[in-house]
Structure formats: structure tokens, C-alpha cells
Design a protein that fits this description.
The structure is a homodimer.
Chain A: H1 5-18, H2 27-34, H3 38-50, E1 54-57, E2 63-66, H4 75-82, H5 100-125, H6 129-139
Antiparallel strand pairs in A: 1-2
Helix pairs in contact in A: 1-3, 1-4, 1-6, 2-3, 4-5
The first copy, chain A, binds a DNA duplex through helix 3.
DNA sequence: TTAAATGTAACTAACATTGTTACTATATGG
DNA sequence: CCATATAGTAACAATGTTAGTTACATTTAA
């Protein structure tokens, strides 16, 4: 692996969650926090929106807000939103039809891959976005947000 | 992700485990079973050897054999042998020092990443190579190995 | 001593990832 | 109503990863 979209998406979600309600956070502000380009942020926002985690508004004073309360969002939802791909890949080549092991290996690996992916998913599901924002509120206490 | 080295390495380990003891399985035979190039196999064998799972012998009638019995090898060992990289990646950019969230996010993500990686590792650790070879022996019963 | 095997370096092709520019569509404040 | 600030998205570049391939040195047994 490994791409950093889950880290970026979680960063975005916590930033939006911690942002005040008086105005919306926009992709430029988020890009500043991530130290990247606004288009990178908007691409991730697009994925989060498709997953029903974020809502956005275009136009002047537009930006992003959470579709749900942070207590009702778990980290696996964020992970799944930006990381569709499977965790494990099978051998991309065709099976060798003269080799019975080659023909059967995929069916043997499949339950192993599924169990491991589920274990990872359950771990991420057990953490709510609100838990991250609570920790961050404490860590950043006293440091005023701009 | 995802690369297919874990799938290939597990394929190799099961093939070597199921191979008769009278001669050694070599990279050409394994490459036939994986439908790939012998060098791809030898690269994976090299990783498995460094991890202490495989032993090899060069020269005429050389090849590979298991360093331990299949009952004493679990799938996480194979995974770790060929997939050093972390499962999750952090945002590669420097933190924005004017943003406290940006500075603290990594420390908040770290325990999440570790817990999820451990959950995945424990799932893979719970499966022994011998379990795969047993299933394969049954599935391939009657189909004679060349 | 010859042939068959491992070990490994160097290279290619295909693909993924991130960042960037440029543009359109949209909505708001004045 | 218009100017401006925003999202949305396509197109492209730079970089890195992956799998495959060729080539060759080294090792070992027949």
C-alpha cells in the first residue's frame, strides 16, 4: 500500500466537526490545514458526500458540514468512503488449469481475506468520530482556532 | 492497497507444503503453478527465507522447502514476510504549524491505526498453514499432482 | 565439467497516487 | 442584477509501486 486518503479524510471530518457553526469550512481552509491543494480536498469531500457523511454547498460562503453528528459516525464509514478497493489482492494471473492447487487456491484464500478484512472493519467501527474530536479538543485546549 | 504478494506467497507456501519430500520444488515449477515468471517467485522466496519460513538450495536439484512444519506457521508470518509496509499511510505533507489540529492529528490517528492493524494481524495469526493444506488436500482429492 | 538451479541487478510497462491548472456551474452578498 | 467566492470536475504531470522480463554471476549435484 498505502494511500493516505483515510488519514486525510479523517483529518477533514474532524476539522469540519470541530469548526464553529457560524460559517462553513471551505476547501481552501481545509487544504491549509492538510497542507495540500484544495482540489485534493474537494475530491475527498466528494467521496465523503457520496457516502452520506458530508454535505456541501457551492457558491459564495459555501463549504462543508457534517451530514450527521460526530457521535453517529464511525471511522469505518470514513475508511469505506475513500478506500473502496479490497485490502488484499489475488494473484492477477489466470489459474494454471493443469494444477489443482492453482485452481483451488482462491477459494481457500477467500475466507481468510474476508475474516481479516472484517476484523479490521470491526476495529474501525468501534471508534466514533466524536471520540477523536474529544481528544483533540483537550490536546488543543488553549490554542485558539483561527 | 493492494498488491498480490501475500496471495502469491501463501500459494507458494501451500504448494511447497503439499509437495512430496522426495525432491525439492523449484522456482520454475512454482512459477508454472502461479502462472508467472520464475524471478517473481524467487523474489518472494527470498522474502520468505529472510523471515525464516523457507529454506532454499541452489544448484542442480535445488529448490525450496519449509523451514518449519505447516502446523507451526501462521498466515500472519507469511503476510509480514512479504508486506513490510504499513497498512495505513499518514498525510505525507508537513503539518501546518499554525493549525493545532494539523499538528495533533497524527497522534490521534496513531492508536486507531495500531488497533486496526493488530486486529487484522490477530485474524491472520489464527490461521495456520496446515489448515489451508488440509482443505486443499480434500478439494484436490483424486486429482493427482504432476 | 556440464547442466540446472538460486540470487540479484537492471530495465520496462502498466497502474496508482498526489498535486496542479483550468474551466464550468452555482449561490450569495452587495 | 452582477461580481465574487465557492464547489465540481476534467485533464495532465510527477512520482512511486508492482509485476514481469532479460541477463548474468554463483552454486551445486549428477
Amino acid at each position: 500500500m498505502a494511500n493516505s486518503r483515510f488519514a486525510m479524510a479523517t483529518h477533514i471530518m474532524t476539522a469540519v466537526a470541530l469548526h464553529g457553526d457560524d460559517d462553513l469550512m471551505n476547501s481552501g481552509e481545509l487544504a491549509d490545514s492538510l497542507n495540500t491543494n484544495p482540489v485534493v480536498v474537494r475530491r475527498i469531500l466528494s467521496d465523503l458526500q457520496k457516502a452520506g457523511l458530508i454535505q456541501t454547498q457551492a457558491g459564495r460562503s459555501g463549504g462543508a458540514w457534517l451530514a450527521r453528528k460526530p457521535e453517529a459516525i464511525n471511522l469505518h464509514e470514513i475508511f469505506a468512503a475513500v478506500d473502496d478497493g479490497e485490502l488484499f489482492a489475488y494473484n492477477p494471473n489466470d489459474p494454471n488449469k493443469t494444477c489443482s492447487l492453482s485452481c483451488e487456491i482462491k477459494s481457500v484464500l477467500e475466507p481468510v481475506f474476508k475474516a481479516a478484512s472484517s476484523a479490521l472493519a470491526e476495529s474501525l467501527m468501534s471508534v466514533r468520530l466524536s471520540q477523536l474530536t474529544e481528544v483533540l479538543s483537550k490536546k488543543c485546549a488553549g490554542k485558539k482556532k483561527k
